[in-house]
């Protein structure tokens, strides 16, 4: 019997629909992911070890990955989510992830916190209450008291609607490791000035990494590209004389 997708989606709560949208987004962004291995390892190490006593004393409370649109920030976010998801059972990780802009409701940081509160309530098996920054902070403490290790990953801070919560970021405890992505011109000043977040500029995709992406896309789509076409593709540059392949998004669009 065929399943009607629209009927299935109507049976999901708004929180479940948002979770499903995020899952699909992560799968899509990691489908042809190649390279960035050192960056992924460094960020994953921070997220996993920040929860230790020595990590809490570290001045850096979080990382913001920044760069031009299409440079691969969301793909790095998605790969981190996948890696952490794979080990969450044995490490008692609670992954609180969000990508702003992938649905109409995802641009609200208030709704993000409500969804996270709902998720934590399910893990702790406690009654539902209205989510807000203060309640979210309380739930984080309860998680830690039960031996869980919460980590926060937020993609595309620049896609959130204006909010006093976004401006203050007061819902985020200092001892919870956090990773965010954002366009460089819209990073909330409070994260860098008061909360000691470290800004990382996204490096351009190297030619070797671009070749890896080309090979991956071609193989997964059962296609071939001649060496001549590959050379011509890698030789293209933008108006600033930067290799066009430095943008993974541009590269995948050309190959699709």
Summed over residues and divided by their number, the pLDDT gives a mean of 85
Low-confidence stretches: none
Strand content: 5-15%
Shape: globular
**Number of helices, where a helix is a run of at least 4 consecutive DSSP H or I residues:** 12
Secondary structure: number of strands? 5
Q: Which bin fits the share of residues in helices? A: 40-55%
SSE class: alpha/beta
Strand arrangement in the largest pleated sheet: 2-3-4-1-5
Radius of gyration: 20 Å
Q: What is the string of helix and strand elements? A: HHHHEHEHHEHEHEHHH
Q: Please summarize the sheet with the most strands.
A: 5 strands, parallel
End-to-end separation: 32 Å
Describe the structure.
With 256 residues, the protein is of the alpha/beta class. It is 51% helix and 11% strand. It is built from 12 helices and 5 strands. The chain has a 5-stranded parallel beta sheet, sandwiched between helices. α8 (164-168) links the parallel β3 and β4. α6 runs parallel beside α7 (133-145). The longest helix has 19 residues, at 73-91. It is globular. The model has no long low-confidence stretch (mean pLDDT 85).
Please sum up the structure shown.
The protein is of the alpha/beta class and 256 residues long.
Keywords:
single chain, 256 residues, alpha/beta, globular, 12 helices
